[in-house]
Design a protein that fits this description.
Residues 4-101 form the Saccharopine dehydrogenase NADP binding domain. It contains 15 helices and 16 strands. It has 345 residues and is α/β, with parallel strands linked by helices. The protein has 2 domains: 2-127 and 299-338, 3-Layer(aba) Sandwich (Rossmann fold), CATH 3.40.50.720; 130-295, Dihydrodipicolinate Reductase, domain 2, CATH 3.30.360. The strands form 2 sheets. Strands 7, 8, 9, 10, 11, 12, 13, 14 and 16 form a 9-stranded mixed beta sheet that branches. Strands 3-2-1-4-5-6-15 form a 7-stranded parallel beta sheet, sandwiched between helices. Helix 4 links the parallel strand 4 (68-71) and strand 5. Helix 7 (130-142) packs across helix 15 (330-337). The radius of gyration is 19 Å and the shape is globular. The chain binds NADP nicotinamide-adenine-dinucleotide phosphate. NADP nicotinamide-adenine-dinucleotide phosphate binds at residues 7, 9-13, 31-33, 36, 56, 72-76, 79, 97-99, 127-130, 162-165, 168, 262, 297-298, 301.
C-alpha cells in the first residue's frame, strides 16, 4: 500500500512517515523542497524512499499511483484545498491532520461531488482533536438518540505545541468560531480575549474527568462544530477549550509564532495529555457525557492519520467527503488507538 505524505518535511509529516514505515506500508514523501524531503527520509531510516518534489499546483502528477495521501502541510486554510483537489484528480483517498474548523467545513461541503465522482473518500480532521472528538461525540449522542444541545470540549492543559500548530491556530483565531443551531452554522461570539466567555449562553466551566472542581472554558473553533451535525441529530452544537489555552492562542502575533520552537521534544510529548469531551442533553433533559484521553498528541495524530488512510484503502468507505465518525466505526477506531475512553448516561 503506497501512502503519500504531503508536507513530509514538517514536524507532523516526519512523525507520519515514521508511522507509515512502522505499519509496514510504503511511504511516498511529497513536498516542495528536495533537500528537506531527503533529510526527512534519512531521519526515518528510509534513505531509498520515493521522493516527489512538487509545488501545490503540480501535485496531481506527484500523487499518481498512490493509494492515499495524508496531508500534513498547514495552515490548511492557506494550503489545503489544492491538495484535496490533486488527490481527487489522482484518484487517491485523502486524509489530513488539520484542526482548522472553517477549512474542514469548506472541504466537507465543497468537494463532496468531485470526490464521489472520482470514487475516493476525503476525510479531513484526522488529528488528536478532530478525530477522537468527532468519534466520542457520536458515541455520546447515541445514548440519547435525539440531542437538543451538544458541547464538544478540548480540555488539554497548555503544553508544548509546534510552530506549525501556532501558525495554524493564529489562522483559526483570525477567522473566529462557528456554532451550529437549527440546521445552520453561524459565527459564534467574537474570540474571547483573556477573560471567560459570554457567548450565547454556552458553558463557562466544565467538570474535567480526573480533576477536582470545574475548569473555566471559552468558546473556540473546534472541528466538532462542523463535523458532528453531519451524523448526530442535534439542534445545537458548540465547542470550547480551557480559557487559559484560549488566552494563549489569542496572543499569537506573527512575532510570537516565529519564536515558537519548530518541534516538540520527545519528553514533553510523552508527558503531555490530550482530552476530548462531549456533553449531550436531550429534549427531555436527559444527559450523557463521554470523553477520550491519551498522551503525546503529535504521535497520536500520526497514528490516527495513518490508520485512517490504511482503513480507507483496505476496508473502503463511501466515496465523497466524510467526517471521521462517518468514515470509520468510532468504537473500533478508538479501541485501535489504545486510548482511554468512556461514555456515561
Ligand atoms: N489538530 C491537531 O490536533 C494537529 C496535530 C498535529 C498537527 N496539526 C497540524 O498539522 C500542520 C503541520 O504542523 P507541523 O508542526 O508539522 O508544521 P511544520 O513543521 O511547520 O510543517 C509544515 C509543512 O508544510 C509545508 N509547507 C509550508 N508551506 C508550504 C507551501 N507553501 N507549499 C507546500 N508545502 C508547504 C512545509 O514544507 P517545507 O519543509 O518545504 O517548508 C512542511 O512540510 C499544522 O497545520 C498543525 O496545526 C494539527
Amino acid at each position: 500500500m503506497r501512502i503519500a505524505v504531503h508536507g513530509a518535511s514538517g514536524f507532523t509529516g516526519r512523525l507520519t512517515v515514521a508511522e507509515v514505515l512502522r505499519r509496514g506500508l510504503t511511504p511516498v514523501l511529497v513536498g516542495r523542497d528536495e533537500d528537506r524531503l531527503r533529510k526527512a527520509a534519512a531521519e526515518a531510516g528510509a534513505d531509498g524512499a520515493d521522493i516527489r518534489v512538487a509545488s501545490l499546483d503540480e501535485l496531481t502528477g506527484a500523487l499518481r499511483g498512490c493509494d492515499a495521501v495524508i496531508n500534513c502541510a498547514g495552515p490548511f486554510t492557506l494550503l489545503g484545498e489544492p491538495v484535496v483537489r490533486a488527490a481527487i484528480a489522482a484518484g487517491a483517498h485523502y486524509v489530513d491532520t488539520t484542526g482548522e474548523q472553517r477549512y474542514i467545513g469548506r472541504v466537507l461541503d465543497g468537494f463532496w461531488e468531485d470526490a464521489r465522482r472520482a470514487g475516493v473518500s476525503v476525510v479531513p480532521a484526522m488529528a488528536d482533536d478532530g478525530g477522537p472528538g468527532d468519534m466520542i461525540a457520536h458515541l455520546t449522542a447515541a445514548r440519547l438518540g435525539v440531542v437538543d444541545e451538544m458541547v464538544v470540549a478540548d480540555l488539554r492543559h497548555p503544553a508544548g505545541g509546534s510552530r506549525g500548530t501556532a501558525r495554524s491556530m493564529a489562522a483559526v483565531f483570525a477567522e473566529g468560531p462557528l456554532e451550529y443551531e437549527d440546521g445552520a452554522w453561524r459565527t459564534a461570539a467574537p474570540p474571547p480575549d483573556a477573560g471567560p466567555p459570554r457567548a450565547s449562553g454556552g458553558p463557562v466551566s466544565l467538570a474535567v474527568p480526573g480533576e477536582p472542581g470545574q475548569a473555566p472554558v471559552s468558546v473556540f473553533a473546534l472541528p466538532g462544530v462542523v463535523t458532528v451535525p453531519r451524523h448526530v441529530r442535534a439542534r445545537r452544537v458548540r465547542s470550547v477549550i480551557r480559557s487559559e489555552v484560549a488566552a494563549m492562542f489569542s496572543s499569537l502575533t506573527p512575532d510570537v509564532v516565529d519564536a515558537v520552537p519548530e518541534t516538540v521534544d520527545p519528553q514533553t510529548r510523552s508527558a503531555s495529555r490530550w482530552l476530548m469531551l462531549a456533553e449531550a442533553t436531550g429534549p427531555d433533559g436527559r444527559r450523557s457525557r463521554g470523553w477520550v484521553t491519551g498522551s503525546d498528541g503529535y504521535g497520536t495524530t500520526a497514528v490516527i492519520a495513518v490508520e485512517g488512510a490504511r482503513r480507507l484503502v483496505a476496508d473502503g468507505a463511501p466515496a465523497g467527503t466524510l467526517t471521521p465518525a462517518q468514515a470509520f466505526d468510532p468504537e473500533s477506531f478508538l479501541n485501535h488507538l489504545g486510548v482511554t475512553w468512556q461514555v456515561l448516561g
